[in-house]
Amino acid sequence: MRGTINKTVVYLFAIFFLLGSVLSGCGTASTTKATPTDNVTASGSEAKGNQPTTEKKKRIALVVQFNIGSFSSQYIAGVKEEVEKLGGELTVLSGDNDLAKMASHLDAAVTQQFDGILLDHGRADSLTPGVQKALVQKTPIVAFDTGLDVPGVTVVEQDDIKLAEQTLNKMSEDVGGKGNIVKIWVAGFTPMERRQIAYKAFMDKNPGLKEIAAFGSASANTALDTQAQMEAILKQHPNKGDITAVWTAWDEFAKGATRAIQQAGRNEIKVYGIDMSDEDLQMIQDQTSPWVATAAVDPSDIGRVQARYLFKKLNGEQVPDKVSLNPVLVTREQLPKEPVKMADLKKYVKEWGTSTQGQ
């Protein structure tokens, strides 16, 4: 009897073992069946243009001629914001206002095989060799205010002629087309040199305006240096009416000139600038400030637009070689009395900071 029971137990155990194996096999089959469905879903996402979550971030190099003043800092912030938004990581390489150093940084970015390169200012003659190396290894480039004219390189530019004309026309209107003008400008920068072309053409057409002094230099302390130089000019022309207005080709120049004029108590002199920052806005809004108008493109917008076009190139899209950004004239009359920041400016100047180029 015991032997019979033992045989029965062994038999039942064998049946249960076989059933377990079958059930286990069914579970495996079910899991395998789900896998192709997952693969189809992933393929569908890729077909729609969504990047897989495991894809590495694009390494982007931003090579700048200089990082001086609030315009540059806001421009770089705009680039960084858009690069990160589009799935990249940004490395900023500054030439510290040394064209040879900037060219060296460009060569390093090419050698290190960044996925894409952005250029800010600089000169075509010093940048072209590095740009050509990048194109050979198929590294896309988008430049801002460099003067480059190389097929395959997209150049984003402010309309520097229009920037100058807007402020010069406003100055002429305010002073009645007559008066003594101080110009603050410096050579060696592509946008500055284009603005000088507009200035010369304007002065040739307006004989009632006379340039009595011109100076300017770019340094790590441009505004402070400009202030000292403007103080010297004011001493050379000490009487009311000796100087009617100051035209500046850069907001760092306008800041220095404005401070010198205020400290000298010569607020009958009006200042006109180019470019814009939060600090500039506060100075223009000050009812006692000689700085009354500026023309600019939102620097953060410039950075965002430039980054968008680079990622279009990285995605294999067709991109034009020239992208022009329209400037906006901002005057004290347009602004409220309470302080505003750049982020709020479009409430008062409708054309400001609304570019969707490259989207």
Which class of the largest domain in CATH terms? Answer: Alpha Beta
Mean pLDDT across residues: 86
Q: Uncertain spans, ≥5 residues at pLDDT below 50?
A: 1-53
Strand line-up of the largest beta sheet = 2-1-3-4-5-11
Alpha-carbon Rg, integer: 31 Å
Assembly type: single chain
Give a short account of the largest sheet.
6 strands, parallel
Helix content: 40-55%
Say how many strands there are.
12
Given the C-alpha coordinates, what overall shape results?
elongated
Number of continuous helical runs: 10
Distance between the termini: 87 Å
Q: What's the domain count? A: 2
- What sequence of helices (H) and strands (E) makes up the elements? HEHEHEHEEHEHEHEHEHEHEE
Would you give the CATH topology of the largest domain? Rossmann fold
